[in-house]
Amino acid sequence: MTTRRAVLLLSGGMDSATTGAIAREQGFDLYALSFRYGQRHAIELEAARRVAAALDVTRHAVLDIDLAAFGGSALTAGIDVPKDRPLAAMDAAIPVTYVPARNTIFLSFALGWAETLDSTDLFIGANAIDYSGYPDCRPEFMRAFEAMARLGTKMGTEGRAITIHAPLIRMTKRQIVERGRELGVDFSLTRTCYDPNERGDACGRCDACLLRLKGFAEAGLSDPAPYARAS
Predict the structure, then answer these.
(1) Where are the beta strands (DSSP E) in the chain?
(2) Which pTM value belongs to this model?
(3) pLDDT band at 97 (very low <50, low <70, confident <90, very high)
(4) Distance of alpha carbon 60 from alpha carbon 62, whole angstroms
(5) Nearest CA-CA partner of 168 in 146, 200, 138
(6) What is 5-218's CATH number?
(7) How far is the C-alpha of 163 from the C-alpha of 197, rounded, in Å?
(8) In sequence order, what are the residues at sequence separation of 6 or more whose Cβ sits closer than 8 angstroms to the Cβ of residue 140?
(9) Main-chain dihedrals φ then ψ at residue 227, nearest 5 degrees
(10) Can you spell out the DSSP letters for 71-120?
(11) Residue 59: left if φ>0, alpha if ψ -120 to 50, beta else—which one?
């Protein structure tokens, strides 16, 4: 049986690590793609390298694209990362941690690499249940991107459907933690925080940390990632 190739968008967080484990379980030969895009939480790239090694990917590419040149986000500009927000408020409006068009840009690069690999499968760890209200994490966006890919690629015009796999999109963080644990994901390798300290310890207070901690707590587990101690 010929192994199918797939491009995995790998941030180094718990969601992309679990997504990679799901793709591997499904028998895909993984090509991981990460980005150094001017993010303030660049510590995630070290985590992405660790996760890529644990997943035994065929290749891990890290691309440089400077989204900080545009700014407009607390992750790429001198804007404070929100802290201690109530969980109920996180999907009430699009937060300042939204990076304009980020998943559109990332998926476009992944699609370009997939074509060179003769692959029609892209994996992304997007989630639309316990998340921060980003519009490019919704199922509707994924389906729209698939439609664009069919129109704008050689594979698509030849009748080969491009599939965006977002296996976590309707999962809660608890379900993601539990699924990752079933698949043997080592969550100690992952990093999620938007505003880590110089050592890479998570702040424990940004949206990403609060949602992650919520997932582990609801699963009855302790998060093995390092967190900064309150002074």
Answers:
(1) 5-9, 29-36, 59-64, 121-123, 163-165
(2) 0.95
(3) very high
(4) 7
(5) 138
(6) 3.40.50.620
(7) 37
(8) none
(9) -120, 145
(10) --STTTSS-PPP-S--GGGTTTS--TTPPTTHHHHHHHHHHHHHHHTT--
(11) beta
Instruction: Yes or no: say if 16 and 51 are a contact pair by the CB < 8 Å rule.
Output: yes
- Work out the mean pLDDT of the chain and round it to a whole number: 94
Domain definitions of the chain by residue range: 5-218
Cβ contact 66:72 at 8 Å: no
Looking at the DSSP assignment, which residues form a beta bridge with residue 123?
A: 8, 165
- Give 118-164 pLDDT, tens digit per residue: 999 999 999 988 777 899 999 999 999 999 999 999 999 999 999 99
User: Given a cut of 80, is residue 2 above it in pLDDT?
Assistant: no
Whether 1 has a pLDDT exceeding 70, the answer reads: no
Q: What is the pLDDT of residue 71?
A: 93
